[in-house]
Amino acid sequence: MIGKLQGRLEYRSTDHVMLMVGGVGYVVYCNERTLASMPNVGEAAALYTDLLVREDLLQLFGFTTLAEKEWHRLLMSVQGVGAKAAMAIMGTLGEAGLSRAIAMGDWNSVKAAKGIGPKTAQKVVIDLKDKAPAIMAMGGSVHDALGQTAAVADDVIDDGDDAGTQSAPQVASMSTQSEALSALGNLGYAPQDAASAVAQASDQGAQDTGELIKAALKLLAPKG
Fold first, then answer.
1. Cβ contact 26:37 at 8 Å
2. Which of 5, 61, 162, 196 has the most CB atoms less than 10 A away?
3. Is there a contact between 91 and 61 (Cβ–Cβ < 8 Å)?
């Protein structure tokens, strides 16, 4: 099993790259987000990889983080989701977006991925609800998706005389976020837009349902 490749980026295409490792060129298929994060051709690069083995095909898929690789494997455990569909979902939502969609039951966000229909999107959310938290924790995004913990920041504030730490803001609970999301849905906002606004409002410190809705509405208001 090839779990990780580290070498030089030989070239990139629209859906794959070639990594030169020890004189051997490995073709690795990547989603849009991963491709965008890759360095320039000729520079050092590394990818976690997953090898798909079929009777007539050996295909490597590449990821920037181990958590992203595990998400890919977890998505493929859902009936009807193959490697291509899993890559499309990760490319559209990313780790944090997929975590939030599953935590909030927001299958419409999953459906936004190319080639993913409503039935498959719903199955992803339902099947992975109990399996996802472990991978969310790996990626460090569980606090964004579930609202169970605060982001921990050890920023030292030094004014020349005193030093201290700035505590991380608390985020709203999952149930509170769900209530706010439901209210915004009743007001006609798209689930994906509502989920993003609620998560952002929570990150900014809104705690109860009323605060979340008010802050989210400001974020959703037309600009200009």
1. no
2. 61
3. no
List of domains in the chain: 4-64 (2.40.50.140), 67-143 (1.10.150.20), 170-220 (1.10.8)
Region class of 88: left (phi > 0), else alpha (psi between -120 and 50), else beta: alpha
Dist CA 51 CA 71 (whole Å): 14
Question: Tens digits of per-residue pLDDT, 192-212?
Answer: 677 778 888 888 888 788 888
Per-residue pLDDT of 50-84, as tens digits, reads 999 888 889 999 999 998 999 999 999 999 999 99
CB 17 within 8 Å of CB 28? yes
Ordered DSSP codes for 137-153: HHHT-HHHHH--SPPP-
| Distant-in-sequence, close-in-space partners of 117: CB < 8 Å, separation ≥ 6 | 111
